[in-house]
Amino acid sequence: MFAALLTALLFATSAVCGYRTARQIGGIEANFWRITLATVFLTAWAWTCGAGFAGAPEWFMLSGLFGIGLGDSAYFQVLPRLGSRRTVLLTQCLTAPLAALIEWLWLGTKINLPEIFCVAVILAGVAIALAPGDHLKISARDWKIGLTAGGFAALGGALGAVIIRKGYMALESAGISVDAGTTGYQRVLGGILIPTLALLFFKWRAAPAHGGWFEAKTLAVSREKWLRLWPWVLVNALAGQTLGVTCMQWALKTTPAGIVAAIIATTPIVLLPMTRMVEGEEIGFRALAGAVVAVGGVMGLTFFQHG
Fold first, then answer.
1. What is the pLDDT of residues 115-145, one digit of tens each?
2. What phi and psi, each to the nearest 5 degrees, are found at residue 33?
3. Is there a contact between 42 and 192 (Cβ–Cβ < 8 Å)?
4. Spatial separation of the C-alpha atoms in residues 261 and 240, rounded to whole Å
5. Are 122 and 266 in contact (CB under 8 A)?
6. In this structure, how many other beta carbons lie within 10 angstroms of the beta carbon of residue 48?
7. Alpha helices (H) in the chain, listed in sequence order
8. pTM check: above 0.90
9. pLDDT, tens digit, for every residue of 46-103?
10. Which residues have CB under 8 Å from 25's CB, separation 6+?
C-alpha cells in the first residue's frame, strides 16, 4: 500500500513536469528524453547495486514494451491536449478496471467484494473531483485525439502492470528474489524502442522543412529551450520512469494489479495543488469533495487488505 501511494505522489510530480515539457517540445520528444534519462539512471543502479539481467527479464521487458513503449507514448499525446489532471484522470480511471479484468482473465487473480467496492469508491472520487469543467477550453479535435490516445495509454498501462505480476510469479516459482530497481531497469529496456522509433520518424518528417537531416533545427531542440526545460526533463525522468516505476514494481510484487492501479488512480488528487500552481487551474468544492471520497476509498482498501 505504501509503495503504491508513493508511486501516486511521484507520478503526480512527473505529470506536471511532463506537461511543461510536452507543451514546449512536443509529446514525442518529451517522452523520448524522459525515458532515455531514466534508462541511464536505472542502468547505473542495476549494474552497481542491482542484479543486471537476473531473474525473468523477458517478462519485465515485455511489460515495458506495452506499458512504457505503447502506453506512455500515447500518454504523452494526451498531456499537451487535455492537461495533466485530465490526462491522469482519464488514463488511471481506465487502467484500474482494465488491469483487474486482464489479471482475472489471464492469471486468475480475484478481488473480493469489499475490495471491489473500495476500488469503485476511489475511482468515483477521482471522477467527481476532476470531471471536466468549463474553465479550461479544449477544442473538439484535441478532445477526440486526447480521448483516443488516453484509451490506448490505459490499455498499455494495464497490460504492462499485469505482465509485471506475471514476471514476479515467474521469479517466485524459480525461487529467485530480484530488487525493484533491477526489474524497473529490465522494464525500461523493453520500453525505450518505440519512443526512439517514434522520435526518428518525427524527425524524418520534419527534416525537409528544416533543410535536411543534419540541420540543427532537425536534430535538436534549440539551446534556449533546453536551458529553460532541462530541470523539468530531469525531474520528470527521476519522478516518473526511475523512482515512480521502481515503487510501482515494488507494489506489484505483493499486491494485485487492479488494486495497485486503483491506488495510483489517486494521482490526480495529489495533482490538485500542483496544477493550481503550475497550470493555473481552479480548485473548487467538487474537487475537494472528490478528494475526500477517494482518500476514504484508499483507507478502506487498506483496512480490508490488512484487517
1. 888 888 888 887 787 666 644 577 888 988 9
2. -70, -35
3. no
4. 15
5. yes
6. 8
7. 2-25, 27-46, 57-64, 73-107, 113-130, 140-174, 180-191, 193-210, 216-219, 223-236, 243-252, 257-264, 267-278, 285-306
8. no
9. 999 999 999 999 999 999 999 999 999 999 999 888 888 778 878 877 888 888 889 9
10. 221, 225, 229
**CA distances to 5, 50, 64, 146, 261 from 93, in Å:** 15, 33, 20, 15, 8
Q: C-alpha grid cell for residue 170?
A: 515467474
Lookup: cell for 115? 475490495
Q: Distance between alpha carbon 232 and the CA centroid of its chain, in Å?
A: 16
Kindly state the cell numbers that stand for 81.
491536449
Question: How many Cβ atoms sit within 10 Å of the Cβ of residue 266?
Answer: 28
Classify the C-alpha dihedral 244-250-256-257 as positive or negative. positive
| CA atoms 28, 34, 37, 42: torsion sign | negative
Of 272, 262, 244, 242, residue with least CA distance to 305: 262
Q: What is the pLDDT of residue 216?
A: 47
| Cβ atoms 189, 61 nearer than 8 A | yes
- Give the 3-state secondary structure of residue 108: coil
CB 255 within 8 A of CB 301: no
Residue 139 is placed in which grid cell? 477544442
Please identify which residue in the block is written with the cell numbers 490526462: 87
Cell of 13: 510530480
Cell triple for residue 61? 521487458
Name the amino acid, one letter, at 10: L
